[in-house]
Design brief:
The chain is mostly helical and 83 residues long. 73% of the residues lie in helices and 0% in strands. The chain is elongated and about 65 Å long. The termini are far apart. The model has no long low-confidence stretch (mean pLDDT 88).
Length: 83
């Protein structure tokens, strides 16, 4: 798979922008483009999967933090009756 094979993206710049929008670092972007240029589809997909896992881990961490805050608010609200 060469970069030229990704016609639906329109251009190399569109792929780079998509990677930036996905939160990829410059290092990851350069690696992904190199994979595309050299036809290393398996390595590219692994890089993208690894980045996705990292993003999902951050989402789960954020959910846990929200749960902690919600529990604190619940506990404080429960005690309001004591005022």
């Amino acid at each position: 798979m060469k970069l030229e094979d990704l016609i639906q993206y329109g251009s190399k710049e569109a792929i780079i922008q998509n990677l930036k929008d996905a939160g990829c670092s410059q290092e990851v972007i350069e690696c992904c483009i190199a994979c595309l240029d050299h036809g290393k589809k398996a390595e590219l997909l692994k890089r993208l999967a690894d980045h996705r896992k990292g993003l999902l881990r951050k989402v789960h961490e954020g959910e846990k933090q929200i749960d902690c805050l919600d529990y604190l608010v619940y506990q404080i609200d429960r005690c309001r009756g004591d005022e």
